[in-house]
Amino acid sequence: MTDRAQAIADRVETFVRDVVIPYEKDPRFAVHGHGPGEDLVAEMRAKARDAGVLTPHILPDGSHLTQRETAIVLQRSGLSPLGPVAVNTMAPDEGNMYLIGKVATAEQKAHFLAPMIAGEARSAFFMTEPAADGGAGSDPSMMRTTCRPDGNHWVINGRKAFITGACGAKVGIVMAKSEAAESAGGACMFLVDLPDPAIRIERLLDTIDSSMPGGHAVVTIENLRVPADQMLGAAGEGFPYAQVRLSPARLSHCMRWYGAATRAHEIATAYACRREAFGKRLIDHEGVGFMLAENMIDLKQAELMIDWCAGVLDGGSLGTTESSMTKVAVSEALMRVADRCVQVMGGSGVSGDTIVEQVFREIRAFRIYDGPTEVHKWSLAKRIKREHREAMA
């Protein structure tokens, strides 16, 4: 690991442990069950800015840390569910910043990306659609939201669902299909200023997780007019751009929730080492001690998978297969860790007295977000079949 990344990660960890963790009891956290309130976000980010740890994965010259360097920084930010929000490494902003940085024009970066890096604007990625409409979920090719050229504008219509952070966002990346660009794949992406009266939030969903500002919204887009120069990249290239974003974004989720699971393990270990039952401390009971030992194993395996996948991405690969494998392995491993932590702590583990209960809920959602385990396994199985056919040909 590089000295610069280690130094940044150490500063982030100190900030999260000393400044952010006390906010976990703040009543503005998980307001209405839909994430921390905007005033809390602004307050924590102001402190992160003063401490020099705001948006720590993007350097002052606009360049990014490598994926392997980013891993240890995001892992430390994840030691609290509020940590990524406070230091601006949270989804969907981190992934959106990465995509805009890769694809956008200089003018688009100045208008949309700069305030996001400064922690002054949150963003939303409008891709997923309501299942009831038969729209895009794990299969983006099912997208029903449309866009059509109209002079020097594009007009967008459709509905979106599970749009994280849409409520309160200032920057949106909207994905839609165009018959005019069908020959190039059909999907287009647009950068939009929010709020916009043509983008209406129908409702906020009550989800099992509660750490992301703005929650997860169902949205109607009606005759949204976007200037042609706000198209992100080229017409028809939306699906490849989505992969540019999603592969590292899956890995970033692994990084952040690795930190959260590590913290839950710390709390469960401390509990087991001080709590007594049946004449000895819980840690000395084999059933409890073995669960914590299994946590150590799962955490180390998750760490190694993250580092391996980060190395693949740093090598220039799109890494779709590797990120799918890592997303499956890490999300399932961290779910086991969080579940054992709850079990070790008994009644305390299912209460709000510690953050363990919330970590369990957040990681349970992580097994679905950015592609459920089963979808990634299906994708991997297709690759196995294809490679077998090629080998036999």
TrEMBL record:
Domain Acyl-CoA dehydrogenase/oxidase C-terminal positions: 236-384
Annotated signal sequence range: none
Cofactor: FAD
The UniProt record lists the keyword Flavoprotein: yes
Domain Acyl-CoA oxidase/dehydrogenase middle, first and last residues per copy: 124-206
Coiled-coil region list: none
Keyword annotations of the record: FAD, Flavoprotein, Oxidoreductase
Keyword Ribonucleoprotein among record annotations: no
Residue span, Acyl-CoA dehydrogenase/oxidase N-terminal domain: 2-120
Pfam annotation, one family: Acyl-CoA_dh_N
PANTHER family: ACYL-COA DEHYDROGENASE FAMILY MEMBER 11, MEDIUM-CHAIN SPECIFIC ACYL-COA DEHYDROGENASE, MITOCHONDRIAL-RELATED
Family label: Belongs to the acyl-CoA dehydrogenase family.
Subunit structure: Homodimer.
Record's protein name: Acyl-CoA dehydrogenase family protein
Organism: Sphingomonas oryzagri
Record lineage: Bacteria, Pseudomonadati, Pseudomonadota, Alphaproteobacteria, Sphingomonadales
